[in-house]
């Protein structure tokens, strides 16, 4: 099992990173939706909402996968 400098398996770190970035992007997209709505661009606002929902689903999927890894050799030192 390969581990990075964190002591966690690379796949665990990768899932955590992807989850973080998906959640962060979702937060940012809220502003994009407001900007598009303020500009009267409902189609653009709708697109941003779709992207926000996709990132939300991606973050949830990461969360579920991380839960499955918890307590396994892939879960890192905190779950051993």
Explain what you see.
The protein has 80 residues and is mostly helical. The chain has helices spanning 10-38, 42-69. The longest helix is centred in the first third of the chain and has 29 residues, at 10-38. The mean pLDDT is 85.
**End-to-end separation:** 14 Å
Gross morphology: elongated
Flag low-confidence runs. Answer: none
Largest sheet: none
Would you spell out the secondary-structure blueprint of this structure?
Layout: H1 10-38, H2 42-69
Helix pairs in contact: 1-2
Q: Any descriptors?
A:
2 helices
What's a quick, concise take on this entry?
The chain has 80 residues and is mostly helical. The protein has helices at 10-38, 42-69. Helix 1 packs antiparallel against helix 2 (42-69).
